[in-house]
Structure prediction request, 81 residues.
Amino acid sequence: MLSVPEEEKPRLFRAYIPPRIDFLIRAIVPLKNSGKDWNLSDVLTEALEDWLNKAENRALIERHNLEQALREKMVSEEKSE
Prediction:
């Protein structure tokens, strides 16, 4: 299962979404603020993690060794700092 470590620096991710999804997300986020201050970035991160964890996407990640490529990229970035 893929998850994003808390210490990672977030990256800007832009996308266009249908107005109905925009409306519902912006309406739900304030209602969900119980125990955690949710924001749009939290919602989108959770949605993208769920999408990446779908069986067909997990199969692609495994088939193309993307987890290993990600680890190598992170190690390379740490060394260059």
